[in-house]
Amino acid sequence: MAHSAIAPRILCIGIPVRDLTFRVEAVPERGSKANATHLAEICGGNALNAAIAMARLGGRVAFAGPMGDAQETSSGFILERMASEGIDVGRIVRVRGAATPVSAIIIDASGERTLTIYRDPALWSVKLSDADELLACCQAVLVESRCGAFCIDLCTEARRRDIPVIVGVDRAMALTDDLLTAASHLLFASEQVQETAGITEDGEALKRLAKLTPAFLAATRGPHGTIWLNEAGQLEETPAFPVEAVDTLGAGDVFHGAFTLRLAEGGGLREALRFAAAAAALKCTRHGGGLAAPQRVEVEELLRSV
User: How far apart are the C-alpha atoms of 249 and 112, rounded to whole Å?
Assistant: First the structure.
């Protein structure tokens, strides 16, 4: 697969999370207890998982967004992990007195995950660095959908400079959300595209949202592949790669990161979607959330094999 000899620089905007993951045979019923077969402490968060994926796939990744007070321990753990992945953390803003988010994640025998998370409301008061600094030499911006409150101006400026803005959507968006129109690409999960559009069918939900935004629209559906609207407004599908999933945590984020990177390298939409599907499939075959993102050689080998 041909790609640029100079790795693209991509800015990720999000809120990093410290994840405690527990593997169980089955999710316990309300009010009951269950013994975990494995415990792992990892870093996560939508944009951070995507950033790790892009770094491993060959991108130059910078990260911007809020983290907790410099005195609390979770942020130090995450920053050390990010540095080991080669991610530029110089644009992260420490919010005085705030706590870095922490989540507890239960992964059952099928690989499906159930989680709860605490995010300090003070994190949304963050002020990012100047747009000129953040967007310098930037080929793409990837944003968590929940971060519009503090990055919409930056995303608008990126689009003014013809820099793609890819939004990974993992929760329902309001139809008045500014990111709907500031984005160049919106990558939903199936449940979220239906909730956002108020329509219980992915294709029709995408068509409704297309009336509200000029952005490229797609919805990921796990093992059922990705449905998306082409330039003519027609529905197309990119199949998933069949694998034996053991852990789906972070798979959508890896998809977003791989799609963004391949797009920034100059790949077309179909190529970027297939590349992303391969990366997400490989992630699902191993435990570790976003830290189970594959290397470039693995993705290219899978693409050649089918």
Answer: 7
